[in-house]
Design a protein that fits this description.
Layout (H helix, E strand, L loop, with lengths): L9 H14 L11 H18 L5 H12 L6 H14 L11 H19 L4 H14 L5 H11 L11 H18 L5 H17 L1
Helix pairs in contact: 1-2, 4-5, 7-8
Amino acid sequence: MSTAGGAPQPAAADSLMNEIRTFGRLPRKVSGATKEDKAERQLAKRLGYAKAHGQFSAEQLQELDSMSNAGGAPQPAAADSLMNEIRSLGRLPLRVRGQEAHKRAERNLAARFIEAKGKGIFTREQLQELDSLGDAGGASQPADELMQEIRSFGRLPRRVRGDAEAQQSERDLAQRMTNAQKKKRFSEAQLAELSTFAAGCRHVA
């Protein structure tokens, strides 16, 4: 069994490649303590081990290289695939809280969407379509669900600075709350509850 440790393992390599394809990009040894961060670190570690032990075929290595090289360049196929996922969702994905499968999937889609925008892979037409989805998306999340997220957060979210996932999530929640307030989606009871959160923040400050 020990002799197989450094030899190519086609089945294991195929399984790992499928995980990386599903992930949508090369995993990195990211910092952070969320389940997503830990999962990406573990996937990156397994990728590094498999490459070091020669488990990938030449074709698989070429595919991995193409994922790496495409990181800073436009990726029409990737953009089209991502657009199709967002269209299927019917709105812009959000960094929603919760461990249900559909919420984890939406968080993953939101992370990939944000990364893709940052890399500029979308065409002008796609960006216009995303803007229209954003306008519609602000009205698509029920006020009750948004209130539950704010209650779980424990205070009024703010547009904090920083690139950590927790800070990005808080900014996203703050933006959705502001949009909901502007569009008068909250009931009087919900607005009163938000006021108590605001008063609590002032007392803490």
